Amino acid sequence: MRDPDGAVERSETEAAARTLGLELVSSEARGPADLEPALATAARGRIGGLVVTLDRLTMSNSKAIADLAVKHQLPAVYPRRQFIDRLGGAGLMSYGPSSLDIARRVAAYIDRILKGSSPASLPVEEPHEFELVINVTTATALGLTIPESIRLRASVVVE
Q1: Structural domain for 145, as ranges
Q2: Which of 59, 131, 135, 137 is 20 to 30 A off residue 146, Cα-Cα?
Q3: In a domain, 114, yes or no
């Protein structure tokens, strides 16, 4: 599935990989049926980890993706917390904007609009709060130890 918004995220991920001196291997799934083969291929390729980008396919299949990553022993980082805690998802780690913060800010925008502000006059804002969520149970299943320094930085640690 080609998501136009994914192009920007993909470009930023590639730039970050170059900065860190990492080789980025890209794999695209166009639909739910492509997820299992894509992750199985990645596992056979002995990649060091998986970075899941955010698009309609990954959001609607978050639990399946997280479960498949664990099944194929792929450490993965996700863009949203739901990959870890939605319906018992087994995601290892997520880092992204706080959903609670975004919901509060949306409510404030709605309030301003209902009180007469023109939507066009409201500023576009970037997220202010980010959260790091770590699933220690998944880390253990993958044979990983999360350093204490990382655990202390986490917003949420799932045991």
Answers
A1: 4-97+132-158
A2: 59
A3: no
